[in-house]
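Field log, afternoon session.

UNIT: design team B
ACTIVITY: writing a sequence onto a fixed backbone
BACKBONE:
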């Protein structure tokens, strides 16, 4: 049972790694940003409420996100574990996740923080392309799709996200620094935080995550013995 949280600023590679973790370990990749964008696209009530915050690069209110994630985490595929991408993002969200896990005697295996300096983040995001159908992620310079502008996985036309304009990216970075960075101390204090240099290449980052998960599983086995 693997429950992994990926933490890091916008563009640090959370979605890229979560998708690789899903392929390698067969656990669902649950991304709060993808879930919110799907609801915005479908124009649901939740989506209409979330959209102005997302357009400004601000966080959607905790109560909205916590309820959405509680629903998603209660789906049957999440019983075998999951990799969380973009959630939790505030201390209130982290506490809500703990309150969900503790009564069931469950715990997170690890929280992985992907450390990437701001100039690299700005470079990555200026050339990121995403698939609006299957959420695959590309980078025009370093990780391009085989056919320009077309998703390798499902053939849909690739897009740039609405929140990728420079002023919105700046806002997202500011919001990360104020509201999400405190989670590093939150999880460090619980002995769950592992820091990885997020600039070492996708495969190398994944190899580090694999090592962390193996260590966490060995620790869990020791606790059971
Ligand atoms: P969300 O969708 O979660 O966006 P984010 O956290 O800002 O992160 P990104 O998706 O931009 O980046 P990433 O870290 O996944 O990087 P990626 O793998 O794409 O949130 C969007 C909005 O939704 C928020 O602003 C907020 O409004 C709302 N929201 C979401 N969750 C919320 C929550 N819990 N509470 C409240 N509001 C919430 O990689 C980036 C690029 O780099 C790609 O082009 C990729 O190809 C490339 N790349 C990846 N890894 C590497 C590498 N190792 N080397 C070189 N290039 C790499």
């Amino acid at each position: 049972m693997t429950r992994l949280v990926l933490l890091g600023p916008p563009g640090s590679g959370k979605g890229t790694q979560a998708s690789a973790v899903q392929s390698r370990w067969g656990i669902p990749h649950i991304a709060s940003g993808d879930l919110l964008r799907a609801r915005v696209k479908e124009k649901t009530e939740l989506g209409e409420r979330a959209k102005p915050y997302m357009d400004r690069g601000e966080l959607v209110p905790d109560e909205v996100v916590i309820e959405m994630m509680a629903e998603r985490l209660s789906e049957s595929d999440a019983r075998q574990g999951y990799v969380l991408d973009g959630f939790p993002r505030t201390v209130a969200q982290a506490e809500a996740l703990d309150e969900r896990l503790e009564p069931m005697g469950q715990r997170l295996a690890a929280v992985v923080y992907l450390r990437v300096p701001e100039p690299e983040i700005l470079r990555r995001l200026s050339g990121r392309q995403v698939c609006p159908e299957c959420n695959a992620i590309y980078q025009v310079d370093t990780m391009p799709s085989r056919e320009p502008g077309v998703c390798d996985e499902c053939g849909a036309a690739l897009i740039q996200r609405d929140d990728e304009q420079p002023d919105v990216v700046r806002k997202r970075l500011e919001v990360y620094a104020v509201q999400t960075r405190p989670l590093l101390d939150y999880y460090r204090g619980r002995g769950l935080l592992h820091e990885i240099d997020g600039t070492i290449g996708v495969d190398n980052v994944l190899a580090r995550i694999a090592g962390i998960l193996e260590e966490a599983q060995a620790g869990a086995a020791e606790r059971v013995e």
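LOG NOTE: The chain has a mean pLDDT of 95.
NEXT ACTIVITY: expression trials, pending approval
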